[in-house]
Design a protein that fits this description.
By secondary structure, this protein is mainly beta. Helix content is 8%, strand content 44%.
């Protein structure tokens, strides 16, 4: 199965929300859908911004922190942009004191203000991510657009 993905984004002052759709190119069937959460658009600056719109390759990667996850490659001016689980982007995780990402893409199934700061977080992230990895363990090409 050859997969192609799209993230359609909506930009807000403190974060970027999106919808991820993955399609099997041969059948045209949508095989996975979820929501995404990223940092706000701050001109693709490392550690504080979502990545620029564009077409990228997404490949599998393994780390101690996230186990098996996905790496968005060939992002101009940036490195180590991952797709992984987490909840907080645009606000600090009360447990760690900082957002769960520094430029990566979080996946989940809903948006809720978990900590009462009037900024949404993404929910059900670990389960959504597990399902994503079941569908696309070998990666895919992704188009990120508005």
């Amino acid at each position: 199965m050859t997969l192609e993905a799209h993230i359609c984004r909506r930009y807000y002052p403190k974060q970027t929300k999106g919808e991820l759709t993955i399609t099997d190119i041969e059948s045209g069937e949508v095989v996975f859908e979820c929501l995404t959460l990223e940092l706000p658009d701050r001109g693709n600056k490392q550690n504080v911004s979502c990545i620029n719109q564009g077409v990228y390759n997404v490949v599998p990667r393994t780390s101690n922190k996230y186990g098996n996850h996905l790496h968005i490659t060939n992002v101009e001016g940036r490195g180590w942009i991952l797709i992984h689980w987490g909840n907080f982007a645009g606000s600090d995780n009360p447990k760690s004191g900082h957002p769960d990402i520094r430029g990566c893409v979080l996946v989940g199934s809903g948006y809720v203000d978990l900590d009462g700061d009037a900024i949404d977080e993404i929910t059900n992230s670990k389960n959504t991510f597990k399902n994503l990895m079941k569908v696309a363990p070998n990666g895919f090409k992704i188009t990120i657009e508005q």
